[in-house]
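User: Thanks for the earlier help. One more: DUF1876 domain-containing protein. Can you show the sequence and predicted structure together?

Assistant: Of course, both are below.
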Amino acid sequence: MSMSIGVTLESDAWITCHDYGTTRTPILAVHSTTGGLTLHTAPDAPAREQVEIARQFANAAAQMLALTEKWAAARTVSLVKDR
């Protein structure tokens, strides 16, 4: 199965991780006025696969942060230069 979901995050967005201890894997929730989604690993997947998926997600999120900070810094410099 293939699926693509886009959610535009604006200033009202909130992102949280629901912790269920050792009962089940956590659920990442992303919500905004434009929509929302939840992410979690397949409950029946082996633990090592679930950990690897979570690591990939964390690495991609860290990359998104770094690239967004770089973009914002360049934009700030550009806005100052235009004055």
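User: Great, one quick takeaway?

Assistant: The chain has a mean pLDDT of 89.
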